[in-house]
Design brief:
4 helices; Sortase, Chain: A; Sortase; hydrolase activity; Sortase_F; about 10% helix; hydrolase; about 210 residues; eight-stranded mixed beta barrel; mainly beta; globular; two-stranded antiparallel ribbon
Length: about 210
C-alpha cells in the first residue's frame, strides 16, 4: 500500500478494470488487447529531462490520447473500503477516472488515471493502452480551461502479485501521470492477471 498525499492507496485490483467475458465468445487469441513490448519499458533519459513547469492544481475533465483514439471524459475516483482505487462504472465504456484525493494532472506529483480495458460487451476506453509507444502525447483538459500535455516515458505490464506500488504511486518531484488498465495474461477462471501502466511526464500546456 502506497501513500499519496494524505491517503494510502493499495494496488488496483486487476479484475476491477476488465472482465474479458466477451473474449470467451470472440476468441481470446485474436481479440486480446495489445500488450507493451519490452522496449517501451525502457525510458529514454534524454526525453525525461524535457519537463514543463508545473501547473496550479485544477481538476481534470477529459483525457485524449490521439495515437490510440482515446477521447474520454474523466470522473473522480475514491478508495474502496479495502483501500484499492475505485473504478468507473463498467457499463460506461468511454469513461475514465482520476484519483481525486491525490495530485491533479499537471501539478507537481504523481497523478493517477484509470479506466477499463473492456467490459462484458467488448473493448472499452483503454483497450489499446498497451500499444502506446514512448514519446506519444497524452492531453488532459482541466476545469480551469487549460490543457496539460504529457509525453509517454514508458509502458509496462505487471503481474498482480508483483505490482510495484512505490514505482507506480510514489511521489514525484515533477508533474507526472500514470494511466492504468488491466493487462497481462488472461485466465478464464480468474480474468486478467495484471495491469498495463503508462508512465508520462508534463512537457507542455496550453
Amino acid at each position: 500500500m502506497r501513500r499519496i498525499g494524505d491517503t494510502a492507496i493499495a494496488a488496483i485490483t486487476v479484475v476491477a478494470l476488465g472482465s474479458a467475458v466477451w473474449l470467451l465468445g470472440a476468441g481470446a487469441a485474436t481479440h486480446a488487447p495489445p500488450q507493451p513490448t519490452a522496449a517501451e519499458g525502457r525510458p529514454d533519459p534524454g526525453e525525461e529531462r524535457l519537463t514543463s513547469p508545473a501547473l496550479d492544481p485544477s481538476p481534470p475533465t477529459r483525457i485524449r490520447i490521439p495515437t490510440i483514439k482515446v477521447n474520454a471524459p474523466l470522473m473522480g475516483l475514491a478508495l474502496t473500503s479495502a483501500g484499492s482505487l475505485d473504478v468507473p462504472p463498467a457499463a460506461e465504456k468511454n469513461l475514465a477516472g482520476w484519483y481525486e484525493a491525490g495530485t491533479t494532472p499537471g501539478e507537481t506529483g504523481t497523478a493517477i488515471v484509470a479506466g477499463h480495458v473492456d467490459n462484458t460487451e467488448g473493448p472499452a476506453v483503454f483497450y489499446n493502452l498497451g500499444a502506446l509507444k514512448r514519446g506519444a502525447v497524452i492531453e488532459v483538459d482541466r476545469k480551469d480551461g487549460s490543457t496539460a500535455v504529457f509525453s509517454v516515458d514508458a509502458v509496462e505490464v505487471y503481474a498482480a502479485r508483483n505490482f510495484p506500488d512505490e514505482k507506480v504511486y510514489g511521489a514525484a518531484a515533477r508533474p507526472e501521470l500514470r494511466v492504468i488498465t488491466c493487462g497481462g495474461t488472461y485466465s478464464k477462471a480468474t480474468g486478467y492477471q495484471g495491469n498495463v501502466v503508462v508512465f508520462a511526464h508534463l512537457t507542455g500546456s496550453r
